[in-house]
Amino acid sequence: METLSFEEAFAQLEAAVAALQDGRMPLERALHYYEEGMKLAKHCHDLLQQAELRVQQLRVQESGELETVPFE
Known about the structure:
Elements: H1 6-22, H2 27-54, E1 56-60, E2 66-70
Antiparallel strand pairs: 1-2
């Protein structure tokens, strides 16, 4: 799962949710989809946090120099 891109993980998460919403699978299989979905959701969340840390904005200081600050 570590090697999945955000888009790949999100697509798999959507598929797991759709399968669970169908409601016609045995309990054990539903639990498997739920567990995998939770792992995928965490992976997506972690990737989004990493992306947020990389996004910065430039700000001009009073001296005229540029500095990077976290994007809020």
